[in-house]
Amino acid sequence: NNGGMVLFDTDAAFQASCLNRAIWVKPVTDLVDDVPRLAGPVRRFLQTCGVAADASRARALAEALGRLGLDRVCPLGRMADVAPTWHHDGRFTLLELLRWTDLEPDASAGRWEFAHPDLGLYGSASQHVSADEEASHSAGRGELRHDR
User: Fold this and answer.
1) Contact, 47 vs 69, CB < 8 A?
2) Residues 48-106 pLDDT 10s
3) Less crowded by CB within 10 Å, the N or C end of the chain?
4) What sign does the CA torsion over 41, 45, 47, 51 have?
């Protein structure tokens, strides 16, 4: 059955639908301010929000709904049409199918710092190190230590 149900109520407060292809249509004065405020009490039940708005308002709404915990904001009619790269429940589920191998460069090839609680800051050349200190370290004359 391709049937569905559209319900309208003048009360803007969110309420649960009977699910299975049913949607409530509610009036709001300001999409970006009202929808997140009204969705707040039921945010733990929400994952995706379908929106019909221009790009700037959709982005502002997505940022506000993201702060509530929603994972996805998409155009109306596309809620069931997800890309393989979709972050289901806020996670990139394809990563579970991958195993990563990290290749780290030789310690002298990169810039690093290590803060020791008693001895201060140790590290290779960084923006806080003078050219003479960097040259000394690069020449292999010992470990570089500097304080901020």
Assistant:
1) no
2) 898 999 999 999 999 999 999 998 999 988 888 888 777 777 777 777 787 878 777 66
3) N
4) negative
User: Could you read off the pLDDT of 118-129 as tens digits, one per residue?
Assistant: 766 665 544 455
- Helix/strand/coil (H, E, C) string of the chain? CCCCEEEECCCCCCCCCCCCCEEEECCCCCHHHHHHHHHHHHHHHCCEEEECCCHHHHHHHHHHHHHHCCCEEEECCCCCCCCCCCEECCEEHHHHHCCCCCCCCCHHHCCCEEEECCCEEEECCCCCCCHHHHHHHHCCCCCCEECC
Q: What is the token pair recorded at 79?
A: 């809620």
